[in-house]
Design goal:
Order of helices and strands: EHHEHEEEEEHEEHEEEEEEH
Helix content: 25-40%
Oligomer: single chain
Shape: globular
Number of strands: 15
Number of helices: 6
Length: 317
């Protein structure tokens, strides 16, 4: 990394404008309305990216930012969203070139009928594709039925080389697995980036919400510390109604808790967003801190890789 500083923008957005009212009136959510909403979200995101590019060279977007979080229910019609992948790649490629930024997007990719991925696409400043990462760890929880939609990634954990550094991109559920962050770091990542969609249920008590938020932030700050790397986590914000609550769902929807944040290589919070508002979070990153911190906390030096064989077992007694 030639320059000692890097200006980063993290765009935290909601998908609530008009969406919840439509769901309340019609639980089937007409496909034509869904695509119309997706197009409105694209325009909204475009304006935010243009705004952010005035003060940043690297712009980061949240998980699946072109649509509502459709994984709240298992519906084959939602696979149609993935058919827009090539169109969205062209759209964001043009935007990256026009704004002269490195842009990290999170898109629904159709590889072939029946194989779909939750894919991060990184665009270089000239609009070219610097690389992709396909989400490796796929959750399956109430209202987060991702195994129905996404095939686990097959690109491995490989940093993507760009003009602003080597980006170690992982996605949401990957946040809970220290192995993924460590491999990215060992392969030369200059930072860890997590596009995310995580939230509470309104039925959760306040204590449970706080525990979840602290765990989510804490585990990621731990990755930053253990690997001596800065980390960026970009989350959705706002309530998204479950379209099939009255039929078979356990909760009315997900209240995405925002709280996007950036942490330094000692886990220190560099910037943090609110839990209930859309915003652009700006961070001026001192890239020299990586070397400084690793020199005083040489965790890589003291690893005992000859005794880590058990990590390759599903369960080791």
């Amino acid at each position: 990394m030639k320059n000692s500083t890097l200006n980063v923008a993290m765009i935290q957005q909601s998908y609530t404008d008009g969406f919840n009212d439509c769901v309340k009136e019609d639980s089937n959510i007409l496909e034509s309305w869904q695509f119309d909403m997706s197009n409105k979200m694209l325009e909204k995101t475009k304006n935010r990216i243009i705004e952010a590019s005035a003060n940043a060279d690297l712009v980061l977007l949240q998980e699946l930012h072109t649509t509502q979080y459709f994984c709240q229910s298992e519906e084959t019609k939602f696979f149609e969203f993935a058919r827009q992948f090539d169109e969205h790649v062209e759209f964001f490629s043009t935007l990256a070139r026009e704004c002269n930024i490195v842009l990290v997007c999170s898109l629904f990719e159709e590889r072939v009928a029946g194989i779909y991925h939750n894919t991060a696409v990184v665009f270089e400043k000239d609009g070219s594709i610097a690389g992709k990462y396909r989400k490796m760890h796929i959750p399956e929880d109430p209202q987060f039925y991702e195994k129905f939609y996404f095939t686990p990634g097959d690109l491995g954990f490989n940093p993507i080389k760009t003009s602003v550094g080597n980006l170690g991109i992982l996605i949401c559920w990957d946040q809970w697995f220290p192995e993924a962050a460590r491999i990215m770091a060992l392969k030369g990542a200059d930072m860890l980036i997590y596009p995310t969609a995580i939230g509470w249920f309104d039925e959760d008590c306040d204590d449970e919400r706080q525990r979840q938020l602290m765990a989510w932030e804490g585990v990621q700050r731990g990755h930053a510390i253990a690997n001596g790397l800065p980390l960026f986590s970009i989350n959705r914000v706002g309530f998204e109604r479950n379209p099939h609550y009255a039929e078979h769902a356990n909760t009315k929807g997900i209240r995405f808790f925002g709280s996007s944040f950036a942490a330094g290589p000692q886990g220190e919070i560099l910037a943090k967003a609110s839990s209930d508002k859309e915003e652009i979070l700006y961070v001026k990153l001192n890239k020299n801190r990586i070397r400084e911190v690793r020199n005083i906390w040489p965790f890589f030096r003291d690893r005992r890789i000859e005794h880590y064989q058990s990590l390759l077992e599903l369960y080791s007694k």
